[in-house]
What does this fold into?
Amino acid sequence: MTETQKASSGGKYEEVIGYSRAVRAGNLIFVSGTASTSRNPMAGQDEAYQKAQEAIKVISDALQKLGASLADVVRTRVYVRADTDWKEVSRAHRESFGHTKPASTWLVGNFLDPNVIVEIEADAVVLD
It folds into this structure.
C-alpha cells in the first residue's frame, strides 16, 4: 500500500468538514477545491481574475509542500458562480497553466460560502 502525505492550507473549512488541502499518494497529488482566501471584496471587473489567481497560489503552495509544482498539474476542475466573469477566471488559468495545458472541466454552480465566486481543483503527477 502506498503511503500518503497530506498538506493543509489552514483554510477554515478544512477542520469543519474534515479534509486536506492536498493529498499525495505515490506520484499522484490531488488538490481539493480551492477558493480565494481573501475576505476583502474587490470591486470591479478584475475581481474574478484576482480571486482565481489567489486560489491558484494556494494550490501552488500545497503542491510545493508535497514536492510538486503547477507544471506537474495534469487536470483542473474550475467551478464558477453564474454571475462570475468566467473569461477573467480563464485568463488567470491560462497564465498559470497555459504552458502545460492540463485537461480541464468548467462548471457553473453555487458554493457553501456565498462569498466564493470561483473554486479550482487540481490533480498532479510527479514524474521522478
Summary: DSSP finds three helices and six strands in the chain.
